[in-house]
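[Q] Does anyone have a clean structure-token version of this?
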Amino acid sequence: MGVYAELRKQTPKITGSLVRMRQETFKDATVPAKYKILAALTIVTVTKCEPCIKAYTKMAFEAGVTHDEFIEFLNVAITEGGCPGEQWAMKAYEVYLDLQSGGQIEEEVCCE
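[A] Here you go.
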């Protein structure tokens, strides 16, 4: 059992709430899910959370985000994050390109 799974077992009302929030938040509603996922990707890119970058990039890819849409949201992250934002945006782009070419990402994903 992984550390996160063990923590969830010990504190299901706390750590499980993040999972439940994501399930509710990232579904199609007034705003399509893919745009909410891209917004989250922008935020985690600027805040430099690599596991979240991988997770939201994977979610974006699975939600059918186009290459051009992905790049535009990375541009927002770069604009708001400056030089560090650009470095972290490149990490997201690398994951996206790997997924596009049929690769798999390592499941280092947090809060899942």
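[Q] Thanks! Anything notable?
[A] The chain has one domain: 3-100.
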